[in-house]
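User: Second chain of the day. Same drill as before.
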Amino acid sequence: MRRGAGVAGTTIVALAAAVALLAVGVAVQAQTAAKRAITFKDLISLHRLSEPQISPDGKWIAYSVATPDVEANHSVRDIWVVPAAVGGEARQITRGGSDTRARWSPDGKKLAFISGRSGTPQIYWIALEGGEATRLTSLSTGADNELWSPDGKAVAFVSSVYPDCRDDACDAARDAAKEKSKVKARVYEKLLYRHWTEWWDGKRSHLFVAAVDGANVPRDLTPGANYDVPPFNEGAPEAIAFSPDGKELCFTANTDKDEALSTNGDLFTVDVSGGSEPKRITTNPGNDWGPAYSPDGKWIAYRAQLQGGYEADRWRLMLYDRQSGKIINRTENFDRSVESYAWTPDSARIYFSAEDKAEMPLYAFAAAGSGAPQVMADGYNADFDLSRDGRTLALARTSLTMPAEIFTADADGGAHLQQVTHQNGALLAEVALPAAETFWFEGAEKTQVEGLLIRPPHFDAAKKYPTLFLIHGGPQGAWTDAWGYRWNQQVMAAAGYVVVMVNPRGSTGYGQKFTAEISRDWGGRVYEDLMKGLDVAIAKYPFIDGARVGAAGGSYGGYMIDWIATHTDRFKCLISHAGPYDLVSEYGATEELWFADWEFGGPPWAKPESYRKWSANDYAAALGKYKTPTLVVGGELDFRVPYNQDLEFFTALQVQGVPSKLVIFPDEGHWVLKPQNSELWYGTFLDWLGRYLH
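Assistant: Same format as last time:
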């Protein structure tokens, strides 16, 4: 009898709980319905937060904020600070409009930053309390990558100078003469004569050091060097570092003769006092990058790719013993690529970030020993900084439903995760942003592959929705649980589409073998993964209308769109942005030749069969067979995938009577970055989808 009563009682409690849950669900649904769909205007209004930096006393976090100005057609960038304790008010401390890279002085009283307010980028500093900024450098060639010396008396930085000039007057005079001359011809005798969006001007990025009090002229520590410090500005981790005693600087450089064919970055050290040649301390044929001295001065941590010529090789975290020269590969058994990292103040542990299955967790491990890394913060952490006492983490966290905001967490295990900035809170409270769902399926060779799906806002399960199938670039890249601005999935879903993304072979975050299996197989397993992923999504989600699916992609994703256009008619429309179409002609016009050499086994004349097999233009006759309406987009300043690829693809489409449209931006490169151009891009993108899917 009591057991019966107990069951009855449990049933009543369960029923009450179910009713309560239903009420909550109805309330949430009503609240969501009250929110509107996000628009491009919303997207372009969001503040873009990055680079959190904790003050030495742990009380403040400085960070950068970029906000697009549509009318001016550029982003306004300034430095903000917020108390590390929750509840404090964030405040803007610079108003130069082009201010980035905030770095605390060792005493925590001021922040150095880079600003172009005077025309060329220079180093400035400003007091924590605000006020007027003080200019530290005035080189005609500008300054970047600033770094305080440990005693706060000097700043190291890089500046692009003419290698044979010995002072700034020489650099300035040469630039003035070039500007004055009516002859604008570009003349070269070596490769890598242009990169991304810029033609090489004969300058090299050199390493400088300058006294903060301005007592001396900035000193070039790599005078005459015919190489760049660093080879490219890749962001975090830092490319240069001071030793704890301030007597030595370590930096990355590629001294190989043919830089267009080489990924061989090595670490060098140089005496800060000058007068001595830099000393090479690593000789790995792959890329060594991002030196970070341990606080006790015994080690230099850095990350390395061990395979020369392979830019998508796994980044290992390495430790260089400064006394013996011995190198330890600390993450050889950790099958993920190390991104940023930081030492604890006692030199016992190292924190680092690494992409894992569409997320970017933060890990930590003991510097000495062989223990596996422990997760200290889950989710997607775009940037992080560790407080000087090793107790607090500052994180720039993001997701597919949240642009980056600054959070803090306990460094010991990531507890007490708290959001300290809410600079996009008011706008986000107005818009419906459906969370991403993940699904797994069996791809080529029965390999497990992950997909992500976003439903349109105000979703109705009784309806059938058209679907947008997105293909990422790289090809060694991934769709992640992170907010984006160039291909924002929420804006796309808001137009009434189910957005499906698959991380096929070649994607990062799933182990190096998975990443490597796209090379020399561009249209093979990856294509099978993509098509199977779409098939699974259509079968799994009954609200997807499988007869109304469009596909879009950029860079390698654009290549795959070109490949799809010549291999199937399953899509109602296609959008190709900056996609390689003729791999042979692209080889002769791109810049980083090591990429194509690795991906296809050598240059076209050495491996013609590889280029022909995977080049969409070799199958161009099928365009007229399938006749899939295709939008083609590119930029005239795109030196990575030169826009002749877009022209060739569009020509082949037009000649064969395929409904097609070409959009070329004369002032954009591989990505569309200017606000007004971005508005046109999104408008054209969504209009093309709407024409064929709605």
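The two ends are 62 Å apart (CA to CA).

User: Great, on to the next one.
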